[in-house]
Structures are given as structure tokens and as C-alpha cells.
Amino acid sequence: MYPPAFEYQAPDTLEGALAALAELGDEGRVLAGGQSLIPMMKFHLAAPAHLVDINRISELSYIRRSNGSLCIGALARHNDVVRSDDAKASDVVSSAAPWISDPLVRNRGTVCGSVAHCDPEGDWNSVMLAARAEVMVQGSSGSRRVGIDDFIVSYFTNSLETGEMVTGVCVPIPSGATGGSYMKLERKIGDYATVGVATQLELADDGSIAQAGIGLTAVNYQNTRASAAEDMLAGEMPSDELFAEAAAAAASASDPQTDVRGDADWKRNVVAVFTRRGLAQALASAGS
Amino acid sequence: MQTQTHHKPCTSPEIGGVGHSLRRVEDARFLQGAGNYVDDVNLPGMLHMAILRSPVAHAKLVSIDSSAAMELDGVLAVVTGELMAQHNLAWMPTLSGDTQAVLATDKVRYQGQEVACVIATDRYIAEDALRLIDVDYEELEPITNPQRSLEADAPLIRTDKEDVTDNVSFTWEAGDKDATDAAFAKAAKVVSIETHYPRSHPSPLETCGIVADVHPATGKATIYMTSQAPHAHRTLFALVAGLPEQNIRIISPDIGGGFGNKVPIYPGYVVATAASLLIGLPVKWVESRTENLISTGFGRDYYMTGSLALDDNGRILGLRTDLLADQGAFYSDAQPTKFRAGLFHIVTGSYDFDAAHVTAKGAFTNKAPGGVAYRCSFRVTEASYLIERLIQNAANEIGMDPAEFRRMNFIQPEQFPYTSPTGFVYDSGDYETAMQMAMDMVGYDELRAEQAAAREEGRLMGIGMASFTEVVGAGPAHTYDIAGLKMFDSAELRVHPTGKAILKLGVKTQGQGHETTFAQIVAEELGIPATDIAVMHGDTDNTPYGLGTYASRSTPVGGGATAMVARKLRDKARKIAAHLLEASPEDLDWEPGKFSVKGSPDSSVSIQDIAFAAYTNHPEDEEAGLEGVHYYNPPNMTYPFGTYIVVVDLDPDTGVWTVRRMVAVDDCGVRINPMIVDGQIHGGLTEGFAKANMQWITFDEDGNCIGSNFMDYLVPTAWETPRFELGETVTPSPHHPIGAKGVGESATVGSPAAFVNAVIDALAHLGVTNIDMPVLPDRVWKAIHNA
After folding, report:
1. Domain count, chain B
2. Residue B289 sits at the chain A interface (C-beta within 8 Å)
3. Which tens digits make up the pLDDT trace of A159-176?
4. Are residues B463 and B596 in the same domain?
5. Residues A1, B709: contact at Cβ < 8 Å?
6. Least CA distance to B292: which residue of chain A?
7. How far apart are CA A176 and CA A120, in angstroms?
8. Domain check: are B606 and B643 in the same one?
9. Cross-strand bridge partners of residue B594
């Protein structure tokens, strides 16, 4: 539980952080909440030579609605989302927030840190997939917005270039009736998901499904969009039968491993159960 | 024998004797962060130790190159097995008569085994140096389960032992084979179960640690150590290291939980002490969480089969059990010498029948050694689990309600003292009263009705029960010893002139509240307010010899010693009172806190006045002072019991089960501090729930430990833990001085079967008869789908 030696700096401004990251190149790692990075360093799973602590950059600490989106800054903690009225604009975001780890981690850990970490057992990227979020990325030479599907590359791998960092994440808030949910099976509070399913349904005026979003946690090498299930739902009138078919398609999109959290067949089944229940919950909250 | 539903205190609240829920005096310092744990001990010039552990489960140790580590600034020494061997300390004895490597010399036998130690000026330097040590391993086949271990072609693990040709660590049996065979021969029905009680870990929140301070000038070794048994450890240090015992002082300061994990002596203690001796400076070593989980004493890991023979009416005729222990690489169970599978032969439980036969075998594997009595009186937990699971399945198989099946087979109150088929003599019990109270509290009949209706709707709920009997408080010196040391215990009481007192114990709290509870025993016996009594323990230079705190033995043995020494002092106080009151001792009446002359209650003298007189005005024919010591050898063990009932709701789609109700009726005899007893039961129920629901240590096929940190080894928080509803009956122990039995472990022992029985009860109509612990949702789901 003793990390290897490392250098540390804590710039006061975003420009300072970006300059430090540009200079350090591959040696530098951003420290935000540290709820994944610090344990990984203690276990010697990560050994960054330099940490760039962004906790003093207060401009990154926000949750706000703007231009039809809910935007969460790089220093917003999980518990800030739990407590935020603005976050209630997105069911799938606000229902996931209380499921993140335990109260200690939620007080310290950040949404964007979790998004950037790309741990397939992390909850937020499934939520971002269901909500079709955009990740705001900045480097010393400029900024860009990356769709979540392009941001997630693989197991613990994102599409940031050297010297870039995540400054925020934006979730579009559809104008029509929309509902969402996050369902998580965990062994105990503070555990990663055994299986998690994020769902969002946007309804058209006639009650049919305009767009569906389904993101799966911990059942693939990365958080996964259940595209076939989403396509199956789009344009259709919601029904129990339709949800059951979509649930089966979501389960087919999963490829879980048998491990101490449980058997692969069972996990695949839980994906189906949670997709079915999640869609029903999303529909109910869209209608309310 | 009398069963009461509660015990009315005999003393006033001001005195605070037995039966008062005094607040714990130790909590003031703990709640203010002012406790003093081993890691809080910092001595001038103190060095730090870190341990290099084997990354592989089974390998020949070819070479160790520590030259690069030695060159790191701040590193004073790299200790290897070769160096320890020069001092005859490469191996040490275990508490089960085996030997264990201190630092590996020939092979590594489990992942996490100690290979080398770095001594440095700070812990970070020591940790960095570990990574500079180059060890060459030649890997061997790892044996990860005892079944493989016993196969003829399995590699031999204990190549260190001469004349050893297999991986068997022990064989043992108890009971009467012929009588049991006869019982099964005439059985109308035989019900069997095969189950694994998985490996778990006591995981105290404070890991193990030591500060060894061997003074170079005096040779005095002052050792601050996380020890549940400091006196026994002092003797073992003297015997193993050859240090003169008067020069060893073991101080076990505040201990953050033990649960059996702090009973053994670990290699780190030995190397740190040797390093301090050789270097002449204090050396600190405190385990990381991972070190604690992967290398120190685990609990359980018994593969068990059991069969009950029943007659036509459902009466039990006999019990046959066989067990296979996954021992790890060394046989280091902490248990009484004569009993190779601990007290597992209590497996006949709360039930009256004539014949039982227990056979047991242990097998070495490439896993950490241990088999400590994790919150358990030496394998009683495994035994209780097996019989209570069997009872549930037997009731199901013959179509009888499990409560009725128990009622019919219980040992009856008038049968006590009851001699069990394996030779235990149960001191007292009233099982049916406790069970009925639990059933009334939970609303048993209504729940059964609800369950019948729920099954009609396709909803799954279950009601599980366990009516356990424990055997705790080792023990009578004629039968029980640890490493040859008889399992008595001691108390020394000094009443000061102002009437305040200090009580010194041979047992040692790890959070059980001894500083409060044991003062209450003195208060009960002498009438001195409990708040006027300081309790001291855990310092071998300043307390009388004892075997320590584990296996629920503190109240049964140390508590007995405390009551007896207080009574010795009361006898002397009577003589002093007679002197002061100018009466004969026989003419005095005692009530808590004072003696008075028979027939003239106004003519009295308080215990405080007597204490003052003991130093200022004592009778000429008496020694001055009011002090004494007592070594208590209990005449028998104590047998706490109770019934736990769990109600679960089960989601058939996911296999997730949740606890709706948990009722626990405990009978631990007389309760000294009812609040502390309740706390013990809450803690034990939580640990029992953990075992049933989520907790286990497992290994992959290469022998890698899965469960090496708290992300993988799950300890429930208040969030997951169900709400507990407690009830009590009081059946005093007839042989204990104050009628108390041990209670620290009842709930860990009794509750796992209640939780599992509830899940099985929810699924029994589908034909499900067993799911091994932890009863994970995927196992439940598969059981439903395979049923």
C-alpha cells in the first residue's frame, strides 16, 4: 500500500495545468478526485512519474444547464450531482449518481475522472452512452468536443491525445418527453457494478419512441452501447413485448466473464432483466 | 435449573454491578482518537521493516540477490532465510505442533509467503528496496484444493519434513463408529448433505504489527505487539528465540479487533525482534491490508459431509460426519492440543440422540496457513453450520415444519447436565423456550401462512432458523491446553486505601469491553462502584499469567477468576469489618458495599472504610493490605445457545435475496453488561450475514489469492447489514461463579445457517436442497434454473 515515488504539482489555473501536461507528455497524469488513480498507485498498477493536481482550478467545479445540455465540469464530485437540481433534468444521470460507489468516494471522486478512466466496470460511461453525451477536451493548442462513442476506445483507454485533459462532459436534454434510469447490481455499497444498465427513452408526440439509449456496464471490455436494442425500439410504440425483445438484444450485446462477481450466463440474464425493468421505468418517468 | 427472561441487577446503579448497561469506559479515548495502538508506538531511533513476499504459490527458491537493495540509501539490512537459519530461526513451531517457515529457505509454499525482509530508516525506503531484491524461483505445480492434494500423483508440499510421503496434515475421529453404524442400520430414513464452509478471514480493521525494542545494554526485549495472548506469546518467544523470559516484556496495547487473527505468532514478529536484537535499535513492522489478508491466519475452509439417521417418526437416531480441512501450507490451526479438528465434535448441537461419529482429515495446499478460530471456539462454527443445515433439510425431506422437527429432537431442560454422544457435558440449556420466543417475536405462523400464499402467486420468500449450541470457555486444565500451557486464567485485584481498585487480567481485550465488564464483576462482588475500578491488561510485566482472549473464554475463565479473587478479598474484608465492628466474622451480614452486624443494621462498615483500615488499622493477626490473585481453572466449558430466525425475499429473475427480518434470541446465561452483550451479538450477526451473503477468499488455478483487498474481500457496511431484533432468555451456567457463559461468538456461529436456511426454505418447493456459502445471486439463479 506504498506507492512508488512521484513528483507532484498543483497549478492554480487551467492554463497552468495544460502547460504542465504539455511539458510532461506521457509522464504526466491528471489528479482530480483520485479515487481510482491513488489506489492504483498504491497497488503499483499505475506508476505515473508526475501528478498534475487540478483541484485548485475552481472554474472546473460546476454543474449547469446551457444550450439544451446538462454540463458537468471536471471538478464536479459525484455527490455534487446527487445534490444538484440542474442534474434532475436528466433522469439517467440523476438516478445513477447515488449508485456511484459509497459516500466517501462520492464526496471526493469526480464524474469526469470516471469518464476519462474508461474502467468498463465504471457506471458513468454507460450513462453517457445512453444519454449520448459529449466530452469536452482541452489541450494547450485548443479544445474539442468528442462524442462519447469516440471517446471510449477500450479497456481503460480513451481517445485523449498526449497533453490533453477532460474539462467537462455535456449531456443533451431532449425537448420532448424523456425518461431514464440506471440499474446496478453490486455486491455491497462501494463495489463496482457486477452488471449495470443505463436506459433513456425520448418519446415523440404520438407516444412512440423517438430515440432510445442503452448503455451496459461491466459486461464487456468497455462500456457498451446496445445498438441493436436501441434500433429495435426507435419508431415503435412502447410495450412489454417490445421491451422484452430489446432486453434480449441488449443481453446479446454483452459478453461478460465468469469471475468472483458471478457466472457469465447469469450476468447476461441480469442485463436482460435490468434492460426490461429499466425501459419500463424510463417510460413511466417520461410519462409523468 | 431456572430460565428467566431477564436478570434483575442485585446492585444499585451507583455501584453498577452485574446487569447494568454501563457505558464503556474505553470508548472515551477511542471516540476522541486517543487510543494507543501498535502503530502509534514510535521510539527514538526506530527502524522500519518491509517484507518481500512470494508472488507465486509453489516454487523452488533458487537464489536471492539483495545487493542492489543494500545499496539504496537508508537500507540497513536485508534479512533472508539463510541469515535466519544461522540463528536457528528460519523455522518456528506452530500452535498445532507443526513447523512454519519464518523466511523461506528451500521453497515457497503459498503466494504471500515471507521471503526476505528489508530494515530501513523509513517504510517508504524499505518498500522501494523490496523491488530491488532479485529472487529466482523455479515454479512447481500449485495445489489449490485439498482434493487434488490427496491424489497419489500430487507433488509433495512438505519436502522439509523427513519421512513425510503425502500431503496429509492430520487425521482425527471422535464419537462411536459402531454405535453410529448400528443407528444408521435401523434408520427409516437417512438425510445427507455435502457442503463447503468457504475460507474466510477475520480481517480485523487494525492489521497485525510489532515494535520490537531489544535494548543493547540490558538485553531487555520490550515488544509492543498485536497479541490476543501476550503471556503465552512471551513464553513462546522465550522457547523459540532462547531469550530469558524475565527479559521479555510483551505489551499488547489497544487492539483494533482480533477475531482469532492475533492469536498466532507470525514470521514478521520473529524477524523484527531478531533484527532489533542484531542491530540494537527498535524495529517497527505493521502489515498492509493485503499482507494481512493474504498471509495471516484465515478461518474455516472445511469440506463437510453429514448424514442424519431418522426413525419413522422423525426422531434422530444418529449422526455421521466426515470433513476435509484445506490446511494451507503449514498446519497452524490455533486450537487445544488434543483436538485436531478443534471442537468440531460439538456437531450434535442442540439435539438428543445416542450415536455420533466424526472423522476428519487435513490436507496441505499451496495457500496461506491458518485455520484460526475466527470468532469461534475452535471449529464450533463449522459444526453448528453443518448440523443446522442438516436439520433444515431433514425437516424438508420428511415434510415436517423445521420448528416442529427441532422441538421433537431438542435436548430437554431436565436432561442437563447432558452428556453428548461425542463426550461433551452440556452445563445447562432450555432450547425450546428460546426457540418459542424467537418464533413469537417474528410471527412465525403468520409468516408460514404468507409463504403459502406467496407461492401461489409465484413470489419467493423463505423463513430460516438455526437453534445453535456452542461450547466455549476453554477450559478445564485436565483436557485443554495450547502448546502445553493449560487453559486456566487469572485475575489480580488490589484495593487501594481510598477504596478504589485496580484489576489486572491475564486475558486481553481487543474491543470486547473488558475494562467495563470486568470492573462490573468486581463491583458485583465487593460493592465498589465499577467506575472506581481500573482494569489493566496486555502487559506481561504487570499482569498475572493467562492464556488470553479468544474462543469466548474471557468471561467464562477470566471472569471466573475475577469473581473468585473478589470473593477472596471479601473474605478478608469480613475479618477486617469484624475487627472494626468488634463482632465476630460469622455475625456479620454482607450486602453489596457493606458489612453490618446481624440484627443491628445500623452498625455497619463500608467496603471503602474496610479498605482504608486494611492499610491503617488492620487486625494484628492479619496481613496488611487488601490484595489478592486467583488462578481459575473452570470445572467445565459453558454452553451458550439460542435460536435465530431470518426472513428473506428473493427475486427469481436475478437471484438476489434480501433480508426482511432477523430475530436473534440468545441465552448466554447471566449478562454482565446487557448493552455490551447486545453489541457483541450485533457484530457477530453482521459477520454471519457476511459469510452467508458475500464473503469468501478464493484462489485461481495458479494459486493467486482472490480476496487480497477490501475491494475483493467484502466486509459489509451498515448499508447492507440487516436490522436485527434481539431477544434473550437467561439460563445461568451452574458452575460459573456468576452464572455467565461466553457470548462473543454465538452470533457468528449460529447465524450463517439461519440465513442460508432461509434461502433454501424459499426454494425448497422447487427441489433445491443446498447452495454453498456465500449464497451469491448467480448461485441462487442457477439453482432455480437447474431445479
Report:
1. 3
2. yes
3. 999 999 999 999 999 999
4. no
5. no
6. A1
7. 31
8. no
9. B591, B606
Least CB–CB distance from A2: residue in B123, B720, B777? B123
Question: In this complex, which of A1, A185, A260 lies closest to B654 when CB atoms are compared?
Answer: A185
Residue B476 Cα distances to B482, B635, B636, angstroms: 12, 6, 6
Q: What is d(CA B136, CA B63) in angstroms, rounded to the nearest whole number?
A: 5
pLDDT of residue B6: 53
CB B265 within 8 A of CB B91: no
For residues B428 and B527, membership in a common domain is answered with no
Q: Is B656 on the interface with A (CB under 8 A)?
A: yes
From B50's Cα to the closest Cα of chain A, the distance in A is 10
C-alpha–C-alpha distance, residues B267 and B368, integer Å: 12
Domain limits at B752? 381-472+637-786
Whether the CB of A185 is below 8 Å from some CB of chain B: the reply is yes
Flag residues of chain B having pLDDT under 50. Answer: 1-5
- Are A1 and B712 within 8 A, CB to CB? no
Q: Which residues of B touch A43 (CB under 8 A)?
A: 709
- In whole angstroms, how large is the CA radius of gyration of chain B? 27
Together in a domain, B106 and B123: yes
Q: Kindly give, in sequence order, each residue whose CB lies less than 8 Å from that of residue B300, ignoring residues fewer than 6 positions away.
A: B197, B198, B199, B200, B374, B381, B382
Residues B224 and B134 grouped into a single domain = yes
Does the annotation count B376 as an active-site position? yes
Torsion of CA A41, A46, A51, A56, to 10 degrees: -60
Q: Record the pTM.
A: 0.97
Tens digit of pLDDT per residue, chain A (288 long)? 799 999 999 999 999 999 999 999 999 999 999 999 999 999 999 999 999 999 999 999 999 999 999 999 999 999 999 999 999 999 999 999 999 999 999 999 999 999 999 999 999 999 999 999 999 999 988 999 999 999 999 999 999 999 999 999 999 999 999 999 999 999 999 999 999 999 999 999 999 999 999 999 999 999 999 999 999 999 999 999 999 999 999 999 999 999 999 999 999 999 999 999 999 999 999 987
Cell 443491628, located at residue: B600
Closest CA to B394 of B692, B640, B760: B760
Q: Kindly list the structural domains of chain A, giving each domain's residue range(s) and its CATH number in brackets, ordered by start.
A: 7-53 (3.30.43.10), 60-172 (3.30.465.10), 179-287 (3.30.390.50)
To the nearest 10°, report the CA torsion of B530, B532, B537, B543: -120
CATH number where B129 lies: 3.90.1170.50
Q: pLDDT at position B8, please?
A: 81
- Output the DSSP codes for B601-623: EEEEEEHHHHHHHHHHS--TTS-
- Is B187 part of any domain? no
Residue B774 lies in a domain: yes
Residue of B nearest to A273 (CA): B653
Residue B7 has a pLDDT of 62
* Interface check B72 vs A, CB under 8 A: no
Task: Note the pLDDT of residue B93.
Answer: 94
pLDDT for the residue numbered B1: 40
Asked if B701 reaches chain A (Cβ–Cβ under 8 Å), the answer is no
Burial class (CB in 10 A: 0-12, 13-18, 19+), B559: buried
With an 8 Å Cβ cutoff, are A102 and B289 in contact? no
pLDDT value at position A1? 79
**Does residue B82 share a domain with residue B226?**
yes
List the catalytic residue out of B109, B320, B340, B375.
Answer: B375
Among the partner residues A260, A263, A269, nearest to B712 by beta-carbon distance? A260
Nearest to B717 among A189, A260, A269 (CB): A189
Domain edge (last residue) among B279, B295, B311 = B295
* Complex prediction ipTM: 0.96
Question: Residues of A with CB below 8 A from B290's CB?
Answer: 1
Distance of CA A13 to the CA centre of its chain: 25
